[in-house]
Amino acid sequence: MQWRPLVLTVSLFFGLRAGDGIRISVNEWSTLNPLLTSLDPDAEVVDLVFDRLVTLDAKGNFIPELLESWTILDGGREVVLKLRPGLTWQDGRPIEAEDVVFTWRALRLPQVRAIADTVSGVASLDSLVAEGPLTVRIRLKRPRGTLLSDLYNFIPVPRHLYQVGARPAESPVNFLPVGSGPYRVVAKATTKRVVLERWMGYRGPHPGLAPSFVLLSPSEEEVTVSAFQWERLHFSAVDPLRYYLVRKGAQGAGLVRAMSAPQAAISAYFLNCNPRRSLLGDPALREVIYELLPWWHLARARKFIPSRLATSFWTPESWAHDPEPRPFPQVNVAIRMLEAAGWKRGPNGIRQDAKGRSLTLVAYERPSLSKPSEGALLVYQAAQVGIQIDLRTLPMPTVMEKAAKHEGDLWVFGWTMSLDPDMDSPLFTRDGYQTGANVSSYLNPDVDRLFDEGRHTLDPEARKKIYRRISEIIFLDKPIIPIAYNQTRVLSHMRLQGVGFNLLGQNYGFWPGRRGWTLTP
Q: What is the pLDDT of residue 305?
C-alpha cells in the first residue's frame, strides 16, 4: 500500500466534541483478572479497572492508592497496612482487609501460579492477617528489600466473586470483572475488544477524566493513518518505519504525532536449556546463537530510528543495569565453535554431528511490528553457518504457552522489566521452573541463592552488586540472549491530550497515566 501525506481539513472534526471516548490499539490480552495476568497487554486493561495497594507517580515514587498508609515495624519484619475508608467494589460491596488476605492466598495457589507466577512478589510474603475491617498486618521472617515493589504488584480482588476453582483460566469473571478502579467493563469483554465506561461510584484518589475507553487489538482495527483520520483509533504502538515517516512529516501531517520514550523492556531470544528437550541444552550451542545475534542490522537501523543494543539483561532504566560493555557477536567465531564441536556441514548444507543429528531448530515468534523480525534475522544468520531454523509465527499468548511447556528450541518475544529485579526471578530460578515461568528450563543453584539473598538485602548498593552478579552469570550461561532495549514508539491523535510516560517508558501503571487522558474539541 502506498502512503501519501494527509492534509487536515475542517470537515475532519465536524460534529466531534470534547468528552468523546478514547480508542486505543493494544496487542491481544489474555485476561482481565488480576490474579491471572501474565502478559503486558493484560496489565494495560486491568490498570483502568482496578486500583493497586500502592502506585507510582510520574517520577517513579511510590504513592498510596487503595492504602491510606503503610507502617514498617520491628526492623522491617512487620508491616501494618491501612486501607482507605469508604472504598467499595464496583458492585457496591465495601473493600475490606479480608479481600487483601484472600487475594494473597489466591496468588499462592498452584493452579494460579501455573498461569501467572508471582512467587517472587507479594505471594511469597510469609503471613498476612486481617486486624479489623481496614487493617492488614504482614509478618516476615526476614526483612524484604522488595516490599514496596511487592505492594505495587499486588492488586486485590473481591473475595465474594473471585473464588478460584480447579480451572481458573475458564472462570467467567476473567472477562466480566468487578474492580475497584475508575472504569468498569461494559458488557462482556473478549481478548480482542473491551469497552470501559467511567464508574461514577469511584471514591478512590485517582479518578479518570475521559468518559470511556475502547481497547482494540490490531486484528480488530488495523493500525493505519486512515484509522486515525476517521477516529477509529486515537493511540497505538507503531512500527519503526511508520513512526519515522510520521515524525518526518511524510505521513499524517496535522493529524497524528509520533512520540517515543526509552522503555524498560528487552526483545530477546529465550533458549531451551533442557538437554533432553533441545540441542540448545548444550551451552556451546547457546554461545553459537549469541555469536549470530544480528547486531549489524540494529546498528544500521540506528541511522534512521533510535535503537539501543542490549548489553545486559536489566535495562538502563533499572537500577540493576550493568553498564559493562560486552564483546560484539562475530559470525566467524560461531563457525569456529561449530567446527571445534564436530558439527560438520552435510550434503544439504546443514551441519551434523558424529551421532548423525542435524543442527535443526524450531523457533516460535510473536507477530512483530519490525520487518524483518528478530526471528527472521536469526534464521538468515543461522543459515549462513549451516544451522536450519524453522520459524513459526503465532499469537503472543500461544507463543507464551509453547514456551511455558518448553515446546521448541527458542522463543522470540519481548520482556518488560519490573520495578524491582527480584520480580524477574521466576525466569531463572527453580521455583520458576516448577511453575513454567522459567521458560528456558534453566537451573543454576548460584542464581537461586543470589536471588534469595537480594530479596532480603536492604542496603541498596549491596543489592545492586548482587543483581549485577546475576547479570554476569546470565550472560555466561545464556538462557536468555537480549537483543535490544526497547523503545516505546506510538502514534497519538492530535486531539488526545495528557499522554506521557513514566521512568519505565510506560503510559499506564502510574498516576495520572491514562487516567489523565482527554480529547479536545
A: 62
The DSSP element (H or E) to which 222 belongs, if any, is: none
Q: Is 357 exposed, middle or buried (0-12, 13-18, 19+ CB in 10 A)?
A: exposed
Q: What is the mean pLDDT of residues 479-502?
A: 94
pLDDT bin (cut points 50, 70, 90) of residue 139 is very high
Distance in Å from the first CA to the final CA of the chain: 31
Backbone angles phi, psi at 265, to 5 degrees: -155, 155
The domain total for the chain is 2
Strands (E), 74-178: 78-83, 127-130, 135-139
Could you tell me the CA-to-CA distances from 357 to 278, 287, 351, 354, 386 in Å, in that order? 12, 19, 8, 7, 13
Q: pLDDT (tens digit, 9 = 90+) per residue, 411-451?
A: 999 998 888 999 899 999 998 888 888 999 999 999 999 99
Q: Domain containing 189 — which CATH number?
A: 3.40.190.10
Q: Which domain holds residue 412?
A: 263-486
Which residues neighbour 18 within 8 Å (Cβ) at sequence distance 6 or greater? 518, 519, 520, 521
**Predicted local distance difference test score (pLDDT) of residue 379:** 96
Summarised one tens digit per residue, pLDDT across range 316-358 is 989 999 998 888 899 999 999 999 999 999 999 999 999 999 9
Q: Are residues 314 and 410 in the same domain?
A: yes
**Which residue do the cell numbers 475542517 mark?**
10
Q: Calculate what percentage of the chain has a pLDDT beyond 70.
A: 93
CA dihedral defined by 110, 97, 189, 25, rounded to 10 degrees? -90
* Domain match, 268 and 159 both: no
DSSP 218: T
The 3-state DSSP class for residue 467 equals helix
If we measure between CA atoms, which residue out of 170, 206, 264, 167 comes closest to residue 49?
A: 206
Q: 107 and 118 in contact (C-beta within 8 Å)?
A: yes
Q: Check whether residue 316 and residue 186 sit in a common domain.
A: no
What's this model's pTM, rounded to 2 decimal places? 0.85
Cα distance between residue 130 and residue 82, in whole Å = 10
**Mean pLDDT across the chain:** 90
Q: How far is CA 52 from the centre of its chain?
A: 17
Q: With contact defined as beta carbons under 8 Å apart, do 12 and 150 qualify?
A: no
Instruction: Identify whether residues 418 and 314 lie together within a single domain.
Output: yes
Q: 248 lies in a domain?
A: no
